[in-house]
Write the C-alpha cells for this entry.
Amino acid sequence: MGITAADVRAWIEDYATAIGEHRAELVQLDTAIGDGDHGTNMDRGMRAALEQLAKVGDDDVGALLKSVGMSLISKVGGAAGPLYGTLFMRMATATAGKPELDLGEWAEAVAAGVAGVQQRGKAEAGDKTMVDSLLPALDALRSAQSEGAELADALRRSADAARDGMLATVPMQARKGRASYLGPRSVDHQDPGATSSELLLRTAAERFGG
Ligand SMILES: [Mg+2]
C-alpha cells in the first residue's frame, strides 16, 4: 500500500510527460514575467533525467531521486535547474536506501525537498515562486497525515493544495527571481515555477494514489 521504487520511477516518467505536454504553457507563462525559458529548460532536464534513470535499479527510492536531481542540476540552466535539482537531491537524502515509502516517509521527503528549495532560493510564501505551490502541498500532506488519512486521500489533498497555491500566485507581486524586476507589472500572471511544481504534486497523486 506504500510507494515503491518502481512507483517513483513511473512518477518521474509521468512528470516528464506532463512537462512535455505543458511545455508551451510554461514558456508562455515565463515569457510574460521572466525570460521564457522555463518550459524548454524543464523539458530538456526531464528528458535527460529519463536517460539517466534507465541506469538505476528499482530497489532504492533515494537512488532514483538522486539521479533525477543530478540530471536537473547538470542540464538545466537558470534558476529552475538548481532549485528543482535541490528539491530532488534533498528528497533523495531523506529516502536513501528505502525500497518503499509510507505516507509519513513521503511527507518527510517532501518536507526535506521544500526546505532545500527555500534555503537555496531564499523564497517565502507569497513571493510568487514555486514555494507557493510546494508549501501548501506540504502543509496539506502533514494535516492529512496527522488526521490519519489514507495515502491516496493525503496525496489528493496535497495536489489540490498545490493547485490552489498555484492559482493564488496570479494576483501576487513577485518578490523573488527575474519576475521581481517587473514590480507591479508581475501582477495578474501565474507563476511558471508554481505551475511546474503543481504538476509535480499532481502527477504524484495520480501515480501513487491510484
Ligand atoms: Mg526563465
The CA atoms of residues 90 and 112 lie 6 Å apart. The mean pLDDT is 96. DSSP finds nine helices and two strands in the chain.
